[in-house]
Structure formats: C-alpha cells, structure tokens
Amino acid sequence: MPISLKKIVLHKLNMRLKFPFRTSFGTLQDKAFFIIEAIDENGNSGFGESVAFTSPWYTEETTATNEHVMKDFLIPMLQHTQFDHPDDLTGIFKPIKRNNMAKAAIEGAIWDLYAKQQGKTLAEALGGTKSEIDVGVSLGIQPTIDGLLEDIDNHINQGFKRIKLKIKPSQDLEVLQKVRRHFPTTQIMADANSAYTLHDMDHLKKFDELDLMMIEQPLAHDDIIDHAKLQQEMSTPICLDESIHSYDDARQAIELGACQVINVKIGRVGGLTEAKRIHDLCQEKNIPIWCGGMLEAGVGRAHNVALTTLPNFSMPGDTAGSSRYWEKDIIKPEVVVQNGTITVPTMPGIGYEIDRDALKEFSIGEFEFKML
Ligand code: OSB
Ligand code: MG
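# 2-succinylbenzoate complex -> structure
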C-alpha cells in the first residue's frame, strides 16, 4: 500500500543549549535545525529532525546545506513519486550524492509516519527488540580538571553506564591519567573528533595504559587507511564515527581492520534504513556498535532511542535525556534517563508527542510543500 503523502512541512527552529559544548573542532551552543513533518491523506503526521550544525566542523553538512538540499532536491523528488515503504527512499534519493543528514531528516519523518500508519512503534517497525536501552554520556572539554572530575562524579552518580570524554592534543593524556586515578573502574572512553595524525603514533600508543573502552575517531574525518595502521599498533579498540557514511564505508573499515567498534549516527549515514543495514553487517562481523548523538532535540533523540532497540547496539550510546541539553524540549513527555537507562515508549511511531507550543516558541521559519 502506498504511503500516500499529502504534504511536507519544514519547521525551522533555533534552540540554545544549556551550556557550550566543547570539542576538538570548536564550541557549539546555538542549534538551528529543521523538524520535518510528513503528513498523509488521513491527517497522520510523522516527524524527523535534521542534525547538522550551523558550521561544517564535524562533517561538511550545515543547517543551510540541509535546507537547500531538502527544498531544492529531496522534497521535489517526492512530489511526483509513489512509494510503499521508507526503505524505498534510498533508491529514490540515490541520484543525490552524500548530503546524508538532509536525506536522513526526510526519511526519518517518513519512517515515523509509516510506523504510525501500521500502528507500530518505530522500534517495532525497525525490528527492534529491547524495551529499555542503556545510555552513557558525552562530556565536552572542560576548562579545569577539577570541574571535569566533579562532572564525571555527578554523571556516575546519576547512573550513566559509561563516560565519554572529549579530548584534543593539549588536553588528553594527562587529563585521562588523572581521571583514571580518580575513577579506577569506571567505563571510560575518549573521543578525539579527528584531532590527530599518524605523526602522533607514539603519543597515542601511551593511551593503551589507560584501560579505555575505546578511542573514537582519533585520525582524519575522511580516513580509513591510517586508522587501520594505528589500530595495528594500539591495543585500545578504535571506534570510527566521522569516517563512516554508509554500509560500504563500514564494510571497508572492517575489512581493513580500521576499527573494532562503530558509532552509528542516523544522520551521518543517511537514515534509519542505512543504519539498519550497517547494524546487520556489524552483527554478522562481530563488531559491536552503539548509537551516537548530535546534540539533538526530542525528535532526533526519539529516533536514536528506537534505533538502539536493535540487538547489536550492545554498548551504551550517547542518547542522554532531554534535560541534559535543553531547558525545555519540543516533545511530551521528554526523554528521561533513570539509572542509565531509557524506557522505550510504547505509543505508535516515535512514541512521544510533539509539543506544538514549544515548536512555535522556537520557530524561525516554516515552509510547506504539497505533494502533487
Ligand atoms: O563526535 O560524537 C561526536 C556532539 C557534537 C558533534 C559530534 C559529537 C558529539 C558528541 C555528543 O559527542 C553527542 C550527544 O550527546 O548528543
Ligand atoms: Mg564522535
């Protein structure tokens, strides 16, 4: 049965994080992004979220490129096309190269709509099996080590299942050594966001004494080959984030031995359908995966929760609760973490209601497209 799209509404929002989030590539605080609403003939609405930031620091996409590609290419491609399943969008969008976050935003809205039409939760529609998911937290680079130790302590007390620390070349080994001394048994990992090169090999090898769960994306955002060289010299598992944009990237990274773990982000890989293919591949190859985050608002967070219910998401992800980043989220109820777990919602689709008042409060624009 066709999905019978009637219109797509792009809600452009601006939301301010509670605190600046520091990474090796820069500091994030204001998030401008889109909530994509896909509406069918019966008045059901599905929601997706664009996850790019306003600057192309993490990958090349931005809020503005997402807007351009959605408005001028992806939505027009849907205006004259019938399709039965969200998986069909991969083929429809294939002529457009990359721009994965733009594709994932639209695809996400249609996945939610499809699940609602089927009367299933998004998790069920994806084939997920868990009723609760384990989560960790990602802590930005902090001005002082005492502040960091206190922050870690707080999050351990809240029950988060692992602590991820952002690092950069001037704030890495010594910081991690101090953290390890204070927290000898905590599950800790580090995320470099591409801050090193193979010239840092000897320095990076010293990380092996820290008993980290993994080191995330130490080398270039577009590299797989040098990561394979580094992994041969390091016992700490390498986890790839920025380098993996597709099933084929994952396949090649695994074949080359460039990583032992993969951070799957729906936006970075072009949507839930591709994320599920990567999940299945990694399960077959015995590569554990976990769901990364992009400082999402509630809709994006809900999609992450649903994806994480697939069985090979065997490590805690970065999906913290709404209140970590936002004074007020755009969904009701908000995503809540208790003892390091999130209970998967049971209402159809993403399982959370959109707070229309919040959507208005944060709105900086709205664009409507009728399907022809
Ligand atoms: O590398 O995983 C990353 C935030 C912004 C950009 C990139 C990353 C991150 C995080 C935080 O680590 C994830 C989150 O809490 O949403
Ligand atoms: Mg990362």
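# post-check
The chain has a mean pLDDT of 97.
The CA atoms of residues 246 and 269 lie 5 Å apart.
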